[in-house]
């Protein structure tokens, strides 16, 4: 497998406070990797650094982030933005904040496509968008495109935001807890759809989650984060069934059993 993302010895501080401490992580083309760990362990900080959307006060103090042979920390802002809008895509926890509440979903899809390809006709944009929504198992996409974001459920909105992210056929999809705000049934369905998307398109997925169950469902490989460090990583089955780190064992113990998961449903 060809290497797609190679993070080496990455250290990040908030002001003077180190929050990510010497993290190395590698993702191959087409791979699904979950970064698992408790709140505040540094997962989102890493994802934001890859995407180049770190907030003010964040300093990358050491390390490299190489995507497809390009050192993301060395390229200029323009090149980075180009990559982000095309070969790297992002999905967030709250799709409500991703969409503009004053525009129809369709107009936002058209704007997204025409920004990248100004010559694309509105009708073509809507056709391409409807197709993308259909691939995320959304019924009647033509009607959906005429609606405003508040007229959609959280699950429909998240499916729509994933569909939009996939429009550029990215090589890497970065997802920060994309199903955490959704009910457990919708969560399971969307994870299933991400797996199908990954199989059909070959887009690699780097997903951040605090939920080991999500990692088990989705990921080929996992890294477990604790207090800014990766304490264990490997293929998902090995880490789940033969964890060597005490914190990993703790995360696994706190996973709901199949029976409990059914009760929650
Ligand atoms: N806006 C902020 N200002 C100061 N420190 C922050 C801020 N956001 C995050 N941090 C620090 O970075 C650490 C890692 O945060 P984050 O990457 O968001 O964790 P996770 O996504 O794993 O929950 C937190 O424990 C916190 O100390
Ligand atoms: Mg986070």
UniProtKB/TrEMBL annotation:
Q: What is this protein called?
A: ABC-type dipeptide/oligopeptide/nickel transport system, ATPase component
Q: Name one GO cellular component term.
A: plasma membrane
Q: Where does this one sit in the cell?
A: Cell membrane
Boundaries of every ABC transporter domain copy: 5-252
Listed PANTHER family: DIPEPTIDE TRANSPORT ATP-BINDING PROTEIN DPPD, OLIGOPEPTIDE TRANSPORT ATP-BINDING PROTEIN APPD
Question: Does the record bear Transmembrane helix in its keywords?
Answer: no
**Chief location bin:** membrane
Q: Which Pfam families does this one have?
A: ABC_tran
For this UniProt entry, the molecular function terms from Gene Ontology, in alphabetical order, are: ATP binding; ATP hydrolysis activity
Q: Which UniProt keywords apply?
A: ATP-binding, Cell membrane, Membrane, Nucleotide-binding, Transport
Family affiliation: Belongs to the ABC transporter superfamily.
Membrane topology is: Peripheral membrane protein
The cross-references to InterPro entries, in alphabetical order and at most eight, read:
AAA+_ATPase (IPR003593), ABC_Ni/Peptide_Import (IPR050388), ABC_transporter-like_ATP-bd (IPR003439), P-loop_NTPase (IPR027417)
Gene3D superfamilies noted in UniProt: P-loop containing nucleotide triphosphate hydrolases
Source organism phylogeny = Bacteria, Bacillati, Bacillota, Negativicutes, Acidaminococcales
* Superkingdom classification of source: Bacteria
